[in-house]
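Deliverable D2.4 — example input (structure tokens):
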């Protein structure tokens, strides 16, 4: 939802106000998703470390994290000045974020088939 706002959807909503509302939930979800992922991992670590899709998924999570950090350290600092959608660099971060997290979830689902 936040990435769609950066792309210009729901432009009536101030970006930082929406961020204060949404981003704590997405950050908080890591407190559930990562420990459960680790629990799944320790159930069969050697097989998963030999699973290319699992390794790709971890790489995607790392890139998605770097993308989020670069966004918050970069264009997001000036979000109060945005009128509709964000500047081009913010749009790139938002599109990357959407693509990367959908890829992470898809990879997570595909692990069992490889
Ligand atoms: C950070 C965000 C993460 C997201 C969004 C995510 C998402 C998912 C999804 C959607 C699945 C498929 C669940 C299913 O088949 O019902 C999955 C499975 C799995 N995830 Fe994650 N995951 C994340 C992090 C991690 C981490 C950090 C690890 C381990 C280090 C991990 C390890 C696994 C394993 C082992 C499976 C099970 C594969 C299987 O046997 O089907 N995940 N994940």
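Example output (designed residues):
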């Amino acid at each position: 939802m936040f990435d769609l706002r950066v792309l210009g959807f729901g432009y009536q909503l101030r970006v930082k106000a929406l961020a204060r509302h949404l981003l704590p939930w997405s950050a908080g979800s890591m407190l559930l998703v990562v420990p459960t992922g680790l629990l799944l991992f320790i159930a069969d670590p050697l097989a998963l470390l030999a699973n290319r899709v699992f390794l790709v998924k971890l790489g995607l999570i790392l890139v998605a994290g770097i993308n989020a950090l670069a966004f918050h350290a970069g264009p997001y600092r000036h979000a109060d000045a945005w009128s509709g959608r964000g500047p081009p660099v913010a749009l790139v971060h938002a599109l990357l974020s959407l693509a990367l997290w959908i890829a992470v979830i898809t990879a997570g689902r595909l692990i069992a088939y490889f």
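The mean pLDDT is 95.
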